[in-house]
Every structure is written in structure tokens, then in C-alpha cells.
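Dear colleagues,

As part of the handover before I leave the project, I'm documenting each prediction I ran so the next person doesn't have to rerun anything. This entry is a single chain, and its sequence is reproduced below.
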Amino acid sequence: MIARDATLHHVGFVVTSIAQQREEFARSTGAEPVSGIIHDPLQRVQVAFLARSNGGPQFELVEPFGERSPVAAFAAQGGGLHHLCYEVDDLVGQLAAARGSGASVVRPPRPAVAFAGRRIAWVLTRQRLLLEFLERTAA
């Protein structure tokens, strides 16, 4: 279901407070902060990224912004591993392939502040794995 050209961009974790949990998360993963806290009003979250010096996928910390945030209930339960994000060349084609494999598109493409306006979309697989797809370049 995931395109051959897709690369694992980041692994997302929901936290109750990026400011309070970023340093401990960095220590436990051997990663370093590579961004400040980014507010995304469309997604109703704040995010921050960490990366390991030897490369590989980044870690994204996701904090709810307000009670209507899609991750608020998960954060209230303590948060944790939330999603995998794959960067793809053809976002629309990837969503068609996901639907064809029985997955549900839970959020259609929309621009993301954290990725300089590149579009993201959210898919829930039949195995209940939440995937985020990030277009490699802006549309």
C-alpha cells in the first residue's frame, strides 16, 4: 500500500507538553532538537522535531492546542506513539492506493505549517495504524 518511492520521514509521539518533555525525550532517544515549537492552527497542534546525528527518520513531538485538538483525548490519557509519516512523490496517488487496500483517508490533503506549506494527509489502515503522508514537494 505504501509507494515504493516513499521514505519514512518521522515517527510521531503525542505528549502533554513539548516544553516539559522534549529534553527527556531527546535523552531517551539519543536525538537532539532540530526545531523550535511550531504552532499549526489548521491541525490544532504544536509540534517540535528531534533528529539523531547519524540520520534516519526524525521524531515529532505533538502537543494538543486546545480542547478541540484531534490529539487532546490521547494526550489526556498520557499520549505515546501516535503515527508514522512517509514522504511521497505523489500524494493523491498514494491516497488512492491506500483506499484500494481498504484503508480510510481520515484527513484529506491540507497544507502543514511545520513543512512550509507542503500538504499532508492522514490514513487509518485496516490494522488501525495511523499513517501521515507528506508530499515531497509543494503542489
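Residues 8 and 86 are 5 Å apart (CA to CA). The chain has a mean pLDDT of 96.

All the best with the project,
I.
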